[in-house]
Fold this protein.
Amino acid sequence: MDSESKHIGREYCIEGVISCYQIILRMMVHRLSRRQIPSVMELARSTLTEIYSPSTFIAIQEQCPEGCLVAAEGENVIGFIMGMETKPGKGKILMLAVRPEFRRQGIGSMLLKSLLRQFTVRGIFSITLETRANNTAAMAFYRAHGFEVKKIVPKFYTDDTDAYEMCKSV
Ligand SMILES: CC(C)(COP(=O)(O)OP(=O)(O)OC[C@H]1O[C@@H](n2cnc3c(N)ncnc32)[C@H](O)[C@@H]1OP(=O)(O)O)[C@@H](O)C(=O)NCCC(=O)NCCS
């Protein structure tokens, strides 16, 4: 690579970083709307290893709209989280994903904290989730938020991968 192309490469890189930050500044966390479900499904399909049917997303959103949150810039979905009450006082995180180019910028944390706030105002103080035993990023993320591994659930996923059940009391 000559010096000119190196220079151009860096400009592209800086522009990319600036546009990421501009989007984050305009990004908001709010409830998932019906019209955002296709974007959320697409993000889930491209980032989560389990495949969920459209009816799953619609059912969760109808059953627990306050537990379905998106981080979005306008209609542009950058991340989402879905959770619901499973028993009185107990909640579960069902799905969480952030677009790869926006990771490690606090968006997953923002979504998780927003959901935990929704849970606590509804009297939910015990939260669980399952994550793939080989998903080191998710494990590190949840540990950073005070979740602890409670047990291994053998062959939890459709491809027979084990899950770690993690929990947190707030
Ligand atoms: C897990 C996920 C949602 C995290 O989202 P994110 O926006 O990158 O998370 P944050 O930037 O808020 O990270 C908060 C902290 O979690 C930890 N963390 C997050 N990603 C990590 C990684 N890849 N490796 C190690 N630690 C990580 C760090 O402590 C981080 O703080 P730091 O960046 O100051 O070090 C994201 O990696 C993702 O979408 N993964 C694919 C889908 C998935 O696995 N979902 C979970 C299914 S259970």
Notes: The longest strand covers residues 76-87. Confidence is low (pLDDT under 50) at residues 1-13.
